[in-house]
Amino acid sequence: xxxxxxxxxxxxxxxxxxxxxxxxxxxxxxxxxxxxxxxxxxxxxxxxxxxxxxxxxxxxxxxxxxxxxxxxxxxxxxxxxxxxxxxxxxxxxxxxxxxxxxxxxxxxxxxxxxxxxxxxxxxxxxxxxxxxxxxxxxxxxxxxxxxxxxxxxxxxxxxxxxxxxxxxxxxxxxxxxxxxxxxxxxxxxxxxxxxxxxxxxxxxxxxxxx
Length: 210
Prior knowledge:
Structural class: mainly alpha
Number of domains: 2
């Protein structure tokens, strides 16, 4: 049986059909995927460039956005190529900082591309979530209620709803780049929307308002 399975896999690979892996990507794997996805970085650079022109930004947040934009531009520059790490070191040095700042800039970019988060600081801001936007919260509640007419839903359903055209359309209008969310984020969002974990079936949530 094992030899048959190996032969089948080899045949699939010959026809460019690789086996699928449904496990969640690790942070290191997400970073590697990001470095290969220049389209996502280009889109993030355009959004950061637009945000950097916002005159209401405070000095700290503006400096962080400019640092993120600088690393993306250096990394994507084909005339003067830089590695991901070297690009962040150069920008950090230009801002009078060192390796710790470079590491933070790389993390900020990954969070922005994957979750649409800006690197807000504790001096003037609390770190908000997109759920604080009334349009997003209302649309998500409506779709959760529709999905849960049977009385329950799973966290995977929340991930699918966030990836839907309706939610993504709102995100685009808000300048948020969050094409998907992880299961852990889906768990937290369900709790914030008063959906409670129930014992009806494993892994299911029940509306706390009903």
